[in-house]
Design goal:
single chain; mainly alpha; transmembrane; transmembrane helix; DUF347; 72% helix
Length: 188
């Protein structure tokens, strides 16, 4: 039983057209899928690993698409995207901390737009992604393309080492664990 069509000129024409649509519609499709998954995440009453991590993965993809579109299609230099995303994020975090004395919700969206804490968290979560993509591109891309030329292996190794260090630090100190009823957590 054959599961593919006869390979003719029509096959190759349709294949090329599908590849083109895949390239041109990927951004829109991923963004739409992210929106759907975020709606599902917002509606869940508790942590659901599959939904949560799918949202995280899609935020990574869409954030990368945003960063790549700015640099590759609009010609915005890597230094500019990295600087602008870093400054915007710093302004958001400073305003957020001054208002709330915590970084557990995004104060601007919460109080000025009336969004609840869940929506506010996910907006901040999404906005941090293009910054990460811009930093990664800036560090890894060749100097001739506006990057620092560290390469993908060096950049990935550097960041994975820092991530591992932070995760180990948090696992030991438990500084990222909410204290019940204002009491100190006992470390094992």
């Amino acid at each position: 039983m054959n599961k593919v069509p006869e390979v003719t000129v029509y096959f190759w024409v349709i294949k090329v057209l599908c590849t083109t649509v895949g390239e041109t519609a990927a951004d829109l499709l991923m963004s739409a899928l992210l929106a759907v998954v975020l709606v599902v995440q917002f509606r869940t009453s508790a942590y659901r690993a599959g939904v949560y991590w799918l949202a995280v993965a899609l935020i990574s993809v869409v954030g990368t698409l945003v960063s790549d579109n700015l640099t590759d299609n609009m010609g915005v230099p890597l230094e500019t995207t990295t600087t602008v995303f870093a400054v915007l994020l710093a302004v958001v975090f400073v305003a957020w901390y001054r208002s709330e004395r915590t970084l557990s919700m995004i104060a601007v969206a919460r109080f000025w737009l009336g969004l609840d804490a869940v929506w506010s968290f996910w907006i901040a979560y999404v906005l941090t992604r293009p910054l990460g993509a811009s930093v990664g591109d800036y560090l890894s891309q060749p100097t001739g393309d506006g990057g620092l030329g560290l390469g993908t292996v060096m950049t990935s190794t550097l960041f994975l080492t820092v991530i591992l260090g932070l995760v180990v630090f948090l696992a030991i100190t438990r500084k990222d664990v909410t204290k019940p009823n204002g009491q100190e957590l006992q470390t094992a």
